[in-house]
Design brief:
about 0% strand, mainly alpha, two-stranded antiparallel sheet
Amino acid sequence: MSLQTSCGSQKRPLCSLLAGRGLKKPKLDDGERLQEAAVQLLDRNQNLCSLFQELQNPDPCRMICFQNVEQNRNPEQNQAASDADPLNVAGLLVGSELRRQAERRGVSVGAVSVKTMLDRLEEIVGGQEDKLRQMFTSSQRVQLQVLLEAGKLLLYQGVFCPRLLWAEYRRDQKHPHLELLYFLHLYNILTLDYIIESDDAVASWLPGQLKALCCWTPPQEEEETRRVQQEVLSTVVGVLVASPRSLVLDELLHWFLDIKEECDEGAERWIQTLDASLCGGSVSPEALQRFFAHCLTQIFTWNPQLTVSDAVTSQNDWTVAKAGRRLTSLCCKLAAIFSVEQLLHHLQQVLETHEVNWKHVLVFVSTLLVYDQLAQPSLSELLCHLLSSAFRGYDLEKLITAFLLARQGALEGAGVFPSYTDWFKMSFGGRSGFHAGSKKSLVFLLKFLSDLVPFEPPQYLKVHILHPPFVPPKHRSLLMEYVTLAKTRLADLQESVEDMGLYEDVSAAGASLQSQAAQDVEKAVCLFESSGRIPATVMEASIFRRPYFLTRFLPALLKPRAVRTFSVFVRAVRTFGVLSRFFSSFQLPLEADAQMNFIEALKQAEKIPAAQYSQYVESCQKRRQQSGSPQRPGVPLAVLQEQLQEFTELLAAGRDPESLAQLSRISHTLSVVCPGSDDPVGPAAAPLLPELLLKVNLVLVLDHVGSAVLKRLCCDLQVADLILQSFCQSLLVASRGNPPNRQSLWGSRFVCVLLDNRQLLSSVIHRLKDLFNRQAASLKPAHILGLAAFIVHLQAAQPGPAQPGPVSVEEALGSAVLSGSRSSMLFSVRLAVAAVSYGLCRGQSASPQRLQDFVPRSLYKKLLFLVPRLFPEARIRPEGQGGDGPTGGHLGDGLSLLWSFTDGTSWTKTVLHLWRHAAFQQLQQLQLYQLCFSEWLHEELRVQRNSDVLSDAERQEYQQWACWELYLPRPEEQGGCGGDPRVLCSRLLTAVMEPPPSREMNLENLDFSPGSSGTGTCLPDLLSRLQELVYEAEVGELSGRRGHLGDFLLRVVSEKCSASSGSISSRLSLQRTMEAWNRVLLTLPPAMFFKIKAEAGRSIVDCSQLLQHITQLQRKACPPAGVLPCAVTVHLLKGLLFAVGQCGRPAAEVDRVWSLMSTSCPLLLISAVRWWQQISPVLVSLWIRLQDAEPFPEQLQLLSACRLWACSLRAGPVLVQIPPGPVLVQAASLHGSFRGGAEPQQNFREVLDGLREAENQQVLVSLLFLFVTDFLSELLDPQEKNSGRSKWLCSELLAVLVNSADWLLLFRSNELDPEPDPVTLTVSDDCSRLMPWAVCSLLQQQSAAFHQRALRCPGFLHSATLWYLAVLRLFLDGEAPASARQVEPTRVLDRTKQFVLSLIRQAPAAALSCSQWRQLETRCADLDPELAATLSIHLDHPRVGFL
């Protein structure tokens, strides 16, 4: 072999070598030799779990090699190669080892294999971190699948018993994992059929597991988990459906029906699971139909609390549109595999044999009608059958069922089922009606209808009156009795039968009388046009319903302009191209149409009074005279467009007088096209403009035919676009020859034309806002210039300076000009520059005070914000007030300035030219045109960082310039900070604590602008500016009084929270404020809140402001648990360690401050104890870095000792000597040790017995308060995990403290207690107010023996009475909790009252002093007279009088 050949062979990969050897024919003794070698290796390593784990991670290279071997294998080599398969070989090895282990231990090999398999399962499943997760992770799933593959190999070898595996697994798991069962079923190791049939307790755990799996939503990125979840649900449900235990699923169905939320993901997942295509694959059609029929029965009969009268009254709310998608979706899924006949037959059977839930039944009928076109004839047939049976056997239940089903079908509309009117007339309106067979049948029907009268909706009563059932003449009196009763009921409901339309459909209830009359006219005209005769309904109404005919029908018919119908209106307004036809339809046509012929036919039949007809003819003649130019009738939009074009041409020709006259003609045409309201908005009414035009909704509601809809239609889009387009063209034409300051008053007159029409002006303004929000990028420079000039003229049209009140029109438009992204900033600058330049040109000769009438304030402030941001050179103020621009108070060549903007090439020069101009700078002297620091912060927080025109570094440089160079030295009266860094710091803090929304919350701005996708604001950048200011104070001039800045910030926060009241909104606002402040606090140096001052010749730490802040504000925002967040706690303690470094004895100073905290700020002390395990390594490490050899402070060492002591008590019954330290630390350590553990109850009792000594009494009292706080949290939060544990702990403590009066003082209000116990200052005021309610709830659950012992305790009766009064006050003030876990709040109040009454009756007269009896009676006199009377009995006792 050559050298090259050998080298080449050495480069062959291992896979190739293994594959080449695998092609050799294996020898017969290879397997035996391999097994012997494996046994020798296994002797050295007998860890079966590791072997299983190794089996689950085969070498990828080996797997590829063996796959290649398998592809090239000859058929006769299959058996030998199979023996050489790595997985089979590994399985044989494991099997051999299992047998050897079983033989060595003397147990069965199945037991060893099951034990090994369960151990490996525990390793896989036990590693799951999220305990709420219902599915395996992808890695767990892969490990499980490989393990199950190994189990199959062992099963084939006969060394593995699946049933034993299930028995052992079930013994250890009360709630088996559904995904594990699914994979056992999938790998044919243990079928779900066997699990369900063999487990007698399956009904106790399977429904709960299915509900939990349905309600759990996988993370969005785990698509495989989502797929497996649906497969698990479908497989389990499919097996259950096919098994005899399918009734287990009833609990799932009941859970589904109890869900109140319409958009519940668990319910949606359950509906998807019930899809026949999912769970029907492994189920026979018969079993699936049987199960779905059972589900329908359960739906129909679930919670049948509604009576028939309830169904009659509430039926209108049970249609498909109103009932909710969840129930209708379930009905659709269950009905999919049945025919309509089968479903109705099943429904009939259920109705005949069960008490039903009428809502579910009727919603199902509606769903069936809406989603199945074949349901209508089948339901009609069922109704006929029900009516026949009802009158044949006088069965009232079948009759009411027929009526309810017929009405339900009619409620879905005429396209789904005949109207109730038609059904009632068809069933009972003729001689062949179901009731017409005998007098008994007639009486049966009328008696039934009479019984329904008190519950009937008015529309059905009207149908029965206007279309009564057929009655023979001799029995007419029976019908009149019902009619009288029905009319009386309608009168009680303030409904008139005369107001019912001629062709009214009761399923469309709610239409106005005018619209119903218009619909009657439309229907009557259509019938007249098709038949050539007056409809019989109209003739009957002219005789029997004369009031409606004369007052409703004829006025609607005889409107001169209401010739066309609503359907014609809808077809006409779909496009503006047919508006001419629509306008012409509102005038009397030249040739008679169907409506005019119908009117003439009624006149000839003498159905129209002569006076009413004459009035109609006269109004028609007046309309003809007022119809405008006869040459162009019916084309007002075309007329308006032509007039606007003529106006532009007159303006270009310089014919100013004629152009102003043309504006008058345009104004008249606009009043025809868009007839405004009766009170036009002229210049005199301009201050009221915002209230009028910002309330117009852009959404067109075409529910009623009338002029209002036409006005909105005409003014919404096309008319507004015509006006704006004409104004832009006119501005360009007028500016070609003259600058803005030399032009005529055409622009002002043009805007005044709009001011005369409120509706039109509103539509134009909304169109402008829409352009600025959504189409700014498509606007050309000429458009921008024209729209800017339009805003200027709107500004000038409002007389005088702005008054307090609603925003002005230009401010409303300015707020629509956004500046949150690069594109919006550039557009805002161009629009603002054009508007300000145009306004300055128009008012160049005016004084600065008068100039504000021409320059829009909001757009001017946009420039003050954006120009320095976009152009760094604008941040440098040139020498001289006017900069390099003209100094004469005007813009010089205004024409060249504006046109340099419109060409789109040199607009940046225009911006800088305007910025440096004297007239522009002089406007900043006016207060209304100053951009104060708060406004700048507001605008800066609206900028989206991801789409900002500045990079991060550029934004930092700009913000530092604005803060330090622009606003810090600027006087406060000009919007600055007056050179005071504290003012700057205060406003920065206010801004970062309450960042404004990135968009204004109004309908016009929602979802219309770019940058609203949730990208981040500039809040982090402003927070960095605040940090820079604080650190500058640390190292600069303020370093000598570092603590003063911290106190100043605390005072700012305190002032911000001082305005909060006791309302719920104020509490939520306080909580949000404190959460925002805590986020800011964590970014500031902690030592700044600790001052160093000299006292008695030494330096000490002064943190009184901080402790007061925690006690007064942080405590109010804490949850009922009463602890500060861990991050805040460690941050403040780090600040303390930093601060004591400047004292002579740091450790002693820490001990002194810690002792101070135990009395004045117990909340920080409790929080330190709670989080000590997490924060102690941080504090110890910091102390070593700061103090090196100095020992750790004694108080902190005692805290660690108390924690260790409490943990030792929990670990064992041996009572360790209690370490010295503050009582609160000892109690909090015990509380933290026992609150979340699961130790035996006897252990806690032994601890209490060891602490019964008098010196430990206060520790137990404080511990009781902390556990009662936990108990209150459980009552307020039904989802609390430690359900019942706090109650038990409190009960044990009460049993120890019942003879002592110390614990009674804890639950008094802190407001009434001048020196409250420190532990009571760890909870919020809201929690303190609820403490009596928690104590009363706790006392109700104690034994009678405890009550007797408590009654002998001094002060217990007095305290219990006060607690009851406090609970009663909570109820009267509406502050009682809405729900509780153990007992309802009302029961707590009632039982507490009875408990207190029993105590008073049992108590001897000497239990309280006379003054105490009288005090309690006085307090109870107004709140509870019964209790006061009981107390007065004791006051009458002679011994009480003596005392």
